[in-house]
Write a structure and sequence with these properties.
Pfam families: TetR_C_43, TetR_N. This is TetR/AcrR family transcriptional regulator. InterPro entries: Homeodomain-like_sf (IPR009057), HTH-type_TetR-like_transc_reg (IPR050109), HTH_TetR (IPR001647), Tet_transcr_reg_TetR-rel_C_sf (IPR036271), TetR_SbtR-like_C (IPR049445). With about 210 residues, the protein is mainly alpha-helical. The protein has 2 domains: about 45 residues, Arc Repressor Mutant, subunit A (Orthogonal Bundle), CATH 1.10.10.60; about 120 residues, Tetracycline Repressor, domain 2 (Orthogonal Bundle), CATH 1.10.357. The chain is built from 9 helices and no strands. Helix 1 crosses helix 2. It is elongated. The protein starts with a helix and ends in a 34-residue tail after the last helix.
Length: about 210
Amino acid sequence: MVSGRALRADAARNYERILGAAVAAFEEIGPEATLEEIAERAQVSVMTLYRRFRSRDQLIRAVFDHVLITEIEPMTTAHTDDPWQDLVGALTTVADVLAQRQAIHSLALEFQTFANETAHRLLRSLEPLISRAIDAKVVRPELQVRDLAAVIMMTAATVHPGDPHSAGHRRYLAILLDGLRPSSTALPRPLHGTPPAHPPTNSDPRSRGGGP
């Protein structure tokens, strides 16, 4: 007789295999990757996949959260004795992941699974970094965490479709990072309200219109 613990361990393994297969399928095949294709790659039945994820939307949300937790958040928790480099490293990681995971990012926006909850989670993880940088006087004292959201959005808009490994977006990120440094010129007061927390992709209509 199989124990409950063994069943739970098997279910956890299936969950991770499905997520890994989904990441690979969406990146290799694109948004048209089917749930059947993902189940085959994960070596599980379609019924098992649907038991864990009742809809395509739910799976895409889980995939994006998986990328956030495994590829982005570890960099936002890396604290060294250099607050500036910690902040730069975190923002560079976010920009690189969004550039390399264009298919998943586009799907998340299309299915509206990059919800405020997920975006706010990312921004909350950046708050300690910007606070430490302000305390160390290596960035403008008037910076807010939502300013980092704008930096991420603008950098993501410079990513060229079909060339995710190009370092072009890093050029523009470097220009934006210079604007975070202390300056004798104060920033204008922020607009009321919070700007959209999710970065646009080139497939998002808001990002079209002749970017770099």
